Amino acid sequence: MAMLEIKNLHVEVDGQKILKGINLTINPGEVHAIMGPNGAGKSTLSYAICGKEGYEITEGSVTFNGKDFLELEPHERAAEGVFLGFQYPVEIPGVSNMNFLKAAINSIRKYRGEDELPAVEFLKLIRAKAAELEVDPEMLKRSVNVGFSGGEKKRNEMIQMAMLDPIFSVLDETDSGLDIDALRIVADGINRMRGQDKAILVITHYQRLLDYVVPDFVHVLAGGKIVKSGDKSLALKLEKDGYAGIGIDENAA
Amino acid sequence: MASTLETRKKVEEVAGEYKYGFVTDIEMVKAPKGLNEDVIRFISAKKKEPQWLLDWRLKAYRHWLTMEEPDWAMLNYKKPDFQDIYYYAAPKSSDDRPKSLDEVDPELLRTYEKLGISLQEQEVLAGVAVDVVFDSVSVATTFRKTLEEKGVIFCSISEAAQEYPDMMKKYLGSVVPAGDNFYAALNSAVFTDGTFVYVPKGVRCPMELSTYFRINEANTGQFERTLIIADDESYVSYLEGCTAPMRDENQLHAAVVELIALEKSEIKYSTVQNWYPGDKDGKGGIYNFVTKRAACRGKKSKVSWTQVETGSAITWKYPSCILQGDGSVGEFYSVAITNNHQQADTGTKMIHIGKNTSSTIISKGISAGKAQNTYRGLVKVLPNAENTRNFTQCDSLLIGDECGAHTVPYIEVKNPTAQIEHEATTSKISEEQLFYCLQRGLDVEESVSLIVNGFCKEVMMQLPMEFAVEAQKLLGISLEGSVG
User: Fold this and answer.
1) End-to-end CA gap in chain A
2) Which of B314, B371, B323 is nearest to B8 (CA)?
3) Core-most of A115, B46, B136, B249, by most CB within 10 Å?
4) CA separation for the pair B13, B483 (Å, rounded)
5) Mean pLDDT (chain B, rounded)
């Protein structure tokens, strides 16, 4: 069974048609990349999957592990195992990363009918994950994303992803604004989420991340539709020839 | 925008679901309805008070008759009919004061258990001595012995009037004079109970002192009086927390709290106020007109007020510090949450009289629904107050677009060496913040609670540990359904 099945998805934002019939099937174990010019609707797709308010589904369906995903509240979709790495992670003053993650983990466990994670185990887990991702433990005590550099914010997304251990990770331009060292760490974080039972959707503008996170499938999104799909060579061709090279007028997006 | 709307809807749902709304039916002994000199004599006689205190009450009453209810606050409400209130109500069983918890009316104990403040538990746990006020009479006092060993006096104010008349005469009304303001004068005339604390020289009070207030009988105004004296080089932390049962009619509460800090002493006074705020249409709820004031009389003395105000339909409250002693320090940390039709006009007054005095004001106001939340503060530096400092920060958080936040700072400086800083911000819970939390698996209520607790963190961390957890939950409860 497919993990994620998107059929003929149409999405409007403030009355504007952004997605105009997306079809996408993602199976367990697969890594998909979505590329496309600015304004093609890449972020809209990730928000629509996660249920952000204001992203109105006018047509089509999204099924996740057999469940009608559009029926679920945003926090329920998260608890079902979907994680969105934000392009612009949000600041929450006064709430430490530790407390934020503890609250998130326990909410998800509650949704799944599990007991709260004991504090000691939580601490062990977060220390281990921080070490793996080369995150300074001091950062965990700071307020969520407040005063973080661009790189720190993305690293923070990675540690959240590692802690929440999603089945399906959507990464929305997680690579933007990163220097090469940070990019490597972020890519490493994403690769840790690969697995037989897991799937990843990487949304990116550039091929460079795909050197580190090698996708099984590459899709090109333009004008609210997937206009081309292929394997990783498609990303390389795009890098070399641009969108025009595969017959897409970037300005028409 | 859409999530703001949803937030508002959620707030509306939460309203009218006051979690502590239940009424205990213990027979009350009441004074007749209304207020006159006979009622005051009745109260004084019930309390077996000395003559001087009755005279003091009567003087306050006669002064009150000449006064008018203030209307300068940003509050809209129907003025109470002071002749339609019972001024004395006590649980019947209190005529024979219980010697231990075993003798306490089980009905009463069950009420406290519902509130999660089982006395038995508290006696064993946490090292908190509790002087419980059920309506107007102290029902049980614990940990008395440990305190006595240190020479700390912690008793009801009625008891103090009999046992410690010298201190009562010296300090009662010395910070908030009987005729200070309309409500303080009323309280001086009719106060029925409250707490008296004295910490002797050089003593650090070995435990947090705590009183739970509770208004129970319909139409019973509650007039508490608290007097705390910290002698030279002493320290005391006092916790005041309250919940009240659900009632349709407005209940008046006009408390007076006086703190006296002598040389190098420190008083930390923390309040969590969760009285019935009224339903979502603004019906019912407590009217809370409180006068709280501290005198830092001694050199290098310190008073710190921390308040978490989530309840009451109307809040009128300005815990203040008179910084008289050279080098004395005043602090005010406040979280005020208003939802639905709640209105709060709260803040502080820092009066700098002594040299090298300093004050800090951190105020966090949160408005949701159709609520109005006003910070009103005064920082006053007198001519002889050399080298004073004040830092004020007022932050407002709005949820929805029908509520209001107002900041009214008054600054009067008569000495050129003073350094005064004032910062103010107003913000909203953003859609992006909310979605970020939701996407991490938190539901709307948890998300709002988390964001609001973060917003209030600087104040919340001032609360003693015993209180902090309860207070954090309370922020969530008050705004429950308040966003989402």
Assistant:
1) 33
2) B371
3) B136
4) 9
5) 81
- pLDDT for A83: 97
Beta bridge partners of A203: A34, A172
What local confidence, expressed as pLDDT, does residue B109 receive? 56
CA distance B403 to chain A (A): 22
Comparing B28 with A2, the larger pLDDT belongs to: A2
CB contact under 8 A, A100 and B440: yes
pLDDT tops 60 at residue B212: no
DSSP A190: H
> Closest chain A residue to B461 measured between Cα atoms?
A94
Contacts of A113 in chain B (CB under 8 A): none
A176 vs B331: which has the higher pLDDT: B331
- pTM greater than 0.90 (yes/no): no
CA distance A12 to A224: 10
Residue of chain B whose alpha carbon sits nearest to that of A99 = B450
CB atoms within 10 A of CB A94: 20
Sign of the Cα torsion B441, B446, B450, B452 reads positive
Q: How confident is the model at residue A97 (pLDDT cuts 50, 70, 90)?
A: very high
Burial status of residue B444 (CB atoms within 10 A of its CB: 0-12, 13-18, 19 or more): buried
Token reading at B57: 């009450």
Query: What is the ipTM, given to two decimal places?
Result: 0.96
Percent of chain B with pLDDT over 90: 50
Residue B165 neighbours by CB distance under 10 Å: 15
Read off the amino acid at residue B404: G
A211: amino acid identity, one letter:
D
